[in-house]
Amino acid sequence: MEYHYATKEGALILKEYKKGLEVVSYEGEDIYLTIPGAVAGKEGTEGKAVISVGKKAMLSCKSLRRVELPQTIEEVGDWAFAYCDSLRELSLPGKEIRFGKGIFRECGKVRFVTVEGKHRDIGALLAAAVTLLDAPYLFTPVGCGEEDWLRQWDARMLQILRAADRDGYSKMVLCGEEDYGSKENNLDYFLNQKRKSKVRIAFMRLLYPFSLAEEVKTELENYLREHTKIPDETWQVLREEHGEDSEYYKLFTEIGCLTEENFDRILSETGENYPEMKAWFLKYKEEKIGYSDFFADLML
User: 153 and 133 in contact (C-beta within 8 Å)?
Assistant: First the structure.
């Protein structure tokens, strides 16, 4: 038997599952969705808690930006939030939860998986464990942010960062031989995407430096600086994905990625899309790099 639970802009569909209820699908246009711990007033649901978000339950829900799971949740099934390409945050209770595979598949905008009782910024590293590091073993509300967890996070990060950029290319081409001439199978494109992935990880860890060893911090900063040269994946990631995120472009300047040599090119490529980032770069040049003609620079 199915039960419908009305939300502000839609409805959750639930069914009986084990000793409780499972969310099996969602229909609607909610931006912020709170999944209830129980469904009151529905015959047959008395005393039954919502314990599961089922397989593909929220698949391709384009409107969702934030989802909060209840204290009663015990399981999140395979691909539960896959292809929710506007999703930015998932809120979890601080307890053991069984997660399926690919729960955030193609959810490139997920920035935080916040956990009750944990520092909000830990939620950024928890989300990145699956979105950037492909390390589902690190995706746990219990233990995240603790010293051992952070050591494992950094170990996985360094494994990715230090791997040769060409790793995986030959296998990819062999598996997709019929598409050998496609952009995705072009070596230069592959290397660019690989380096951009490493840049995203380096940015993330430097922005949330809990227990970050000084030598690792230096290695990450060096990587970002090195990749502001041509090819300039650090600048590409900043411009294409974080032009409105002040913490990103301030870090970019603070660690020395913006230099006298690349300033004119970067300012020109900033264009008119990100006025606040552009203004920050101009201020940085004047204060840190040297005198600039403010009005002349605005013409770039």
Answer: yes
Tell me the two tokens of residue 153. Answer: 């996070």
| H or E stretch covering 68 | strand 66-68
**Among residues 94, 143, 130, which one has the least CA distance to residue 114?**
94
* pLDDT > 50? residue 133: yes
CB 16 within 8 A of CB 1: yes
User: What does the DSSP 8-state code read for residue 39?
Assistant: -
Q: Is 154 helix (H, G, I), strand (E, B) or coil?
A: helix
d(CA 228, CA 235): 6
Instruction: List, in sequence order, every residue forming a beta bridge with 90; answer none if it has no partner.
Output: 67, 113
Q: Are 90 and 33 in contact (CB under 8 A)?
A: no
H helices present in the chain, as ranges = 122-131, 147-162, 169-175, 187-207, 214-226, 233-241, 246-254, 263-270, 275-284, 294-298
pTM (2 decimals)? 0.87
Q: Which residues contact 259 (CB under 8 A, 6 or more apart)?
A: 228, 289
Count the residues in the chain: 300
- pLDDT tens, residue by residue, 19-54: 999 999 999 999 999 999 998 766 666 779 999 999
Dihedral of the alpha carbons of 60, 66, 67, 71, in degrees to the nearest 10: 160
Tell me the one-letter amino acid at 138: L
Cβ–Cβ under 8 Å, residues 45 and 39? yes
Q: Are 51 and 85 in contact (CB under 8 A)?
A: no
From CA 232, how far away is CA 234, in angstroms rounded? Answer: 6
